[in-house]
Amino acid sequence: MAIWCMSLALDRWRQAENRDRRSFSPSSSEEGAGGWCPPATSPASRHHPQPPLLKKRGLEEGPLALITETAHGPRIDAANTAGQDAGAAPGMMLADARTLCPQLQVVPSDPAGDLAFLERLALWAQRWGPWSAMDAPDGLLVDVSAVAHLFGGEERLLADVQDRLAAQGLAARVAIAPTAGAAWALAHYGPPAAILPPGADVAAALFGLPVASLRLDADVLLVLRRLGLKRVGDMAELGRDAVQRRFRNRRSPAANPLIRLDQLAGRVPEPLLPVLAVAMPLVQRRLMEPIRHRPLLDQVLADLAADLVRELEARGSGARRLELGLWRVDGEVVLRRLELAAATRDAAHICRLFAARLDDVEAGFGIEMARLSASWAEPLALAQADLEAAAEQHGTSLAACIDRISVRLGAAAVRRPVPRGSHVPERAQGWASALEPEPASQHMLDFHARPLKLLDSPEKIAVLYASPDGHPRRFSWRGGVHEVARVEGPERIAPEWWREKGHVRLRDYYRIEDGEGRRYWIFRAGLAGDGRGTDRNGGIPDWFLQGLFA
Q: What is the pLDDT of residues 416-445, one digit of tens each?
């Protein structure tokens, strides 16, 4: 079964605007069915009726679009019905859409949040089948083999899917077919609630659908349309040999129409990656008698920490975010949360961190239940402990030190340097909270040798050199003159054309050492006669000092 959420980004944005309405927590269920249920809003139809809260704010009374900032300006990701009627289409630049519709209202989109929402929706959709898979960015595939009779037949199953999604404020189209490709094609281009029974000739039943139903790349679809192949049946009439000659070097299924045709008919298997629910490590204690005194609470916390460490060790993971819940006799719940700089399974460290957060806990008539959970865990391999344990007795790890300082001073008071995706040295490093997760690997660049100390901004120096493009011989900086004894370089760094103007000059960096053994990192901005810089006619290079080596 394929589920296509036609306007997932807009529907999710509407849910965020109406988050004060009825919602389900991650641990709740609906009518006895397990799993997470997305936040509920007013029922949605194809034209998305406006909830009352949005009518008050006036955002949905006119054209609305979700935009993403790109290197060439804002681009439209999705638009409501009024926006599309006014000419704002997904993929269009905002400047072009504003020309057609000056009154267009814009809201920043959230692709990462949409993907996370789709993952939670895939877990929730497992009420209709044993497993489900994501079809990013706005679809799901659910295995409903041999389960339709539990819902009264395939027609009632599709009706239940549509009703439940509409109750969550999601406009969707659904279809059932023997293969994932056929179900996807029917959900996107077939009749509403289409059902293709088992044993039917899938290829013949879908001959009338457009070639876009094969889930091909945009450039492949363009080639097929130029060849006059507009329907799936047109390629079958043309013959496999003719199509094979045109696309014989394409190995990816999305770039080869024949592979997609075989997947559609079930002649070639299509691997899918199911979404699996990972239970959060959680331990709790129900106390025989309510406790009110701090020593007893510390003992309960120590027991919970020991139990949680055993649970994490069995999973091969460590906790990065912890939550302690204390249920009082009068029904009040006291929550304390911690974020750690590194994954840990140290029960004593966990107790020390929570000890500073429990001083203001009011037990009231007593605490009858305590719960400790790790809402964020990372893989942490098992390691053999030091036989002498000398290192652990006489020192504190950096991660534990950061955790203690963050608990005392706050998470915003501790920062760490992080690499940035830039070739320019002063932009290649920034600061982030010490408790934030590590940045993605694609933002980390491998640089050449860099000095231990970088100046906040390069300082201009006067340099004596043999020729305009030659090595420096002497330079003056901060009132002192330095003779250059050794030179290594240059290392050329070009301007970032995507964020800088055309007059910005390239840089040639040199690692130099003076007669007293002090080493510096200097660069020449520009080349002689390049026509850039402040002197556009002469183009005389400027010299700067940017760093100091040890």
A: 777 776 667 777 777 878 777 665 444 444
For residue range 510-533, list pLDDT tens digits in order.
Answer: 999 998 889 999 999 888 777 676
Tell me the sheet residues that pair with 484: 514
Nearest to 276 by CA among 159, 415, 133: 133
Provide the token pair at 444. Answer: 């980390």
Instruction: Give the residue-averaged pLDDT of 305-315.
Output: 92
Do 11 and 170 form a contact (C-beta atoms < 8 A)?
A: yes
Burial class (CB in 10 A: 0-12, 13-18, 19+), 146: exposed
Q: Are 148 and 174 in contact (CB under 8 A)?
A: no
The tally of CA atoms less than 13 A away on the side-chain side of residue 337 is 8
Tokens, residue 161: 């899917």
Please state, for a pLDDT cut of 70, what percent of the chain lies above it.
Answer: 83
Question: Taken in order 529, 530, 535, 540, is the CA torsion positive or negative?
Answer: negative
Q: What is the pLDDT of residues 99-115, one digit of tens each?
A: 998 899 999 998 888 99
**Tell me, what amino acid is at 177?**
A
| 122 within 8 A of 137, measured Cβ to Cβ | no
Question: What's the length of the chain?
Answer: 550
How is residue 178 written in tokens? 């023997």
Cβ-contact 150, 130 below 8 angstroms: no
What is the amino acid identity at position 343?
Answer: A
